[in-house]
User: What shape does this take?
Amino acid sequence: GENVGLHLPTLSVQEGDNSIINCAYSNSASDYFIWYKQESGKGPQFIIDIRSNMDKRQGQRVTVLLNKTVKHLSLQIAATQPGDSAVYFCAENLPSGAGSYQLTFGKGTKLSVIP
Amino acid sequence: DSGVTQTPKHLITATGQRVTLRCSPRSGDLSVYWYQQSLDQGLQFLIHYYNGEERAKGNILERFSAQQFPDLHSELNLSSLELGDSALYFCASSVKSTGELFFGEGSRLTVL
Assistant: This one.
C-alpha cells in the first residue's frame, strides 16, 4: 500500500541509532493500542501492542510506551536498520462489547533509515 | 506473508460500475475485517464479520456491502462507484481473542 497522505511526518535516522515515533491518540476510553508497520506495496504488519492497564511493553528491538494522562503513545526502535524504513501507524481500539476490534488508525509517520 | 489473500490486486473501472473484492483469511481465523486506505482519510475501518455474521460496522457507505461465506472467505461489494472510491482496500483476519490483525496486501481500486 502506498503511504497515506502527501504530507506524512517524516523521521530520518542514521542506521544503528535509536528511533522514537510518537502518536497522540484521540479517545481516553480506548483500551488497546497497536503499532503497525507498512512497507511500500504491502499491507500493515503488526509490530507490538499494549493494553491500557500497562504503561510499557517490550518486544524484540521495540518498546511501546503509553501515557494515558496525555493520551500519548510512542514506539522506540533500537539499533534502527535499513529494513525498518516504512510508514508506522499507531492504532487505538475502543471497547465495543461485541468482541470486535474496530481500530482507529493514526495518519502515520514515515521512517527513513540512512545507511 | 501474512497468510491473508486478496484478489484482485489491481482493478480499474469506471464511475457507476460495481466491483467485488475477495478475501481469504488465514487458516483457522474466523474474523474478517475490511479497511479502506485513501490518501485523504488514511486507514478506515469498514466492517467486521465473525464466522459468517456481521459483528460491527464502521464508516461503510450504503453503496458498499460485504458478506462472509461458510468457508470463511469474504467479499466486499462496491456499487455505483464514484471517483472518490479510488483507494486501497485491505482485508485482515484475526484470532478472536486478540486484536492482532493480519492484513492482506490489498486490492487497489481505481475509478476513472
Summary: The interface with chain B takes residues 1-2, 4-6, 32, 34, 36, 41-46, 49, 89, 91, 93, 96, 98-108 of chain A (CB under 8 Å). Chain A has a mean pLDDT of 90. Strands of chain A lie at 10-14, 19-24, 32-38, 45-51, 56-58, 62-67, 72-77, 86-93, 103-105, 109-114.
